[in-house]
Amino acid sequence: MSAELQEFNDLIEDLKSVINQPNFDKVFKSKAADVPKAKQFLIKMELKRLAQPSGRLLDLRGHVKGDPVEYEYQDKTHYLDEIGRQIFEDQTKKFGQYTVGVYEAVMNAENNNRVIHKKEQQQRLKEKNQPDKPDAIKNKTSESASKSLSGRTIEFTHYGIRTEERMNFSIAVEIQFGLGNVLKAVSSDLSVGGIKVKIPNSKPASVGQKIAIYLTGLEQEFELGLKDGIQYEIVGIDEVSDTHKYIRAKRTFKEDIATFDEFLGNFINGNKRRYKVNFDNTLEAVTVKGFEQYYLPRVTSLPVFLRHANERFLPTLALATENNRSVLGHFSDENKNLVFQQILSQKRIARLARQDSPIKQTLLYSFTHAKGGKLYFYSATSEELNAHPKLRSLFIGFGSRKDSWNVFKLQLAEANADDAHLPLSIPDTASKEIQKLNRPPSPKVQGLLKGLSYVVVFTPLKNEQSTQNYQATYQYDRTQLSLLKPFSHPKLKQYINIEVETIDYVNLRSEERYLYKTSVVVDLPDDSGQISGSSRDISTYGLQVVTDTEAPFKKGDIIVLGLPDFQKVTQKFKLDKLAYEVMAISRDKTIMNLKVYDPRGGHQGRRFFYKLIRQNINKLTPTKIESKYPGLSKALRNIFAKHSKNMAMYINKDHGKFSVNIVGKGPQPNLLHHLMRQFPPEKGKVNLYPLVKDNAVNNTYAPIINEIERTHRPREIDLFVRYRPNQDSVERSFVCYFGDQFLAHDMLHSFVDASSKKDVFLAFRLFLSKTGRPDMNFVSNEIKYIHHYAMHKAKELEGELWSIIGVVDIVDISEEVMLQIGLSSERINQQESIKRQLLSQW
Prior knowledge:
The protein has about 850 residues and is an alpha+beta fold.
């Protein structure tokens, strides 16, 4: 419509319904009597243009905020969202057919991206030409800041698993809430066992309420014989606007109407392409799984799984990642026996299980003593040390000065074997292949999980600064060391065999690597000599080398090395002075990941390893060893995801800009997440202020992401928080500092002491890792399913996952920090009691 007719928009809308009627001229003269003659002519011309029949197809996919589905009209298929459908039906009713006016009305809907963009441009132009008032500037700044603090929560294992396919199907229905209490409404989607219906917000409804629904729209086309309607139970209510909400309901199957069930199943299966399958739950599942797969393989925590057998809880399984193997190393003795059965004694398990808190946790202090070629373990929990204050100083004072000293956070969660089975979000009815993939774990895996009762998660907390703090706080008398004997673990004649599974995730290497140890000599810079070492794994284009002493190299350096043992067995290849580029190097400068440096071609090392691997492929062991129990890794991963107690934060990079707007957590309670819900910037969101204040994303997180590689161990950042309850704003509630902002130990001590005296002291260790590409293999079947029905949705989802560049594991270390600086047991217990109360609020 031209700009000069915009003022007559209401009149034109009013006349649409009579443009094709015989009495149009009479009605027009009556309603347009006050309009100038020249304008009357233009209005008539515009109405005749709008009334012209149209053959253009409407396809709103990617053009609106809603979710377009197929819509049939006179043998033509359009793609309309809910708003578009309503406008289409309203306008075709006015014109009596599909016309140019119908097309333009749908395309100019308020939720059309083009319309939204145009309005935003006009608003920006208006604001540019009008000086802002101080209040307006303040409001805009506040709104922008609020948006940057808004965080969406991904709840791990929340997959929305369905037992049957649903179809987007909009038909008229009548809902009977009670005798004489009937409401006319429209369905949104339909399955044999359930329905979703849009109703006004003003209509009372509650979860668990029984209702009867009459499928009046369907009965106009088919003889269903459902005179008493179908009974449903409301299972969920979703508010979608200020005026409407959706009720989700499931069949109670009180009626014996097998013929209708069969009819509806066949109807849905036969009309999938026409009306589109509803896959909202699959979209949600892929999103959740994608973010889980960024987080779980990178955690530093080690989950150990306890089975109940012979009236004891025994550790029999563990799930390893590339970042938690140090925990396994600490608890391995000189014969590679894992000593978890002693560390997790029956008394300790029982004490943890009895804790009156939704989060059952403690601290574990441990060190080893070598004698006569044997390794002896000492360990104590914080409760055990608090019960003997004198022994606490002795144990920590002595242990923290030993190289083997370690501190772990222990978290216990009840679990069972059923937690291992998480089917796809696609129902069995979709295909035979999906039905096969949805099967529970194999009998062998179920046997290994039989009697599963608990998961205990070990998170290593030791670092250089905390060790110095312990040494400064706790002194000891060497003559008293014999008093530590109750904390020692005697040698056992036989140890429980603990099956250690490695978590499955995408292989980010371009070629397979193989475990192989051979001697390596590396030339030092400026011909200053050589350092010796050995290979850990080999491939055609690279190898990992462990040196006996610190290597003076950095990422990007070109080094020269030789392979003396291999040279002894071949004369065909010259295996000294081989050039490699350093792709990554460990913090202690002893482990290097190397890649062939071959600018001219003909690299002797590459050619040698190509031939060696090809001729011995059946004898070499891949770095990723296949499990003896296929399916066990995934089963343990599912259990761990369901019982994860910590929170994840995801760092996004889009067009060079870093941002944080997503956090993840398991179904279990998490105190930090709970507190971040207190001041939501938007409905259903959390407030990220404690994690991103003072532009932490760009000032703290981004520089680390830019510095590290995906293969590096997580970088640690400590965040200290003074939480002040009952404040009126998030800024007043959270006083936050990163560890490097305390210039001395005394400053940290004062902050912790003051916070715990008057308010609530919280401390978190942030383990920051750089991610690689998303693990699309893990969600490939569900992505294919979405792609089949809505390619644009699948691409949007993949784009969101690809934009993630970093993941942060956030672990509560409050108790450990209070113990570091020597706070009394009474103060620590008081703080823990306050936190339990906070978890029960809101």
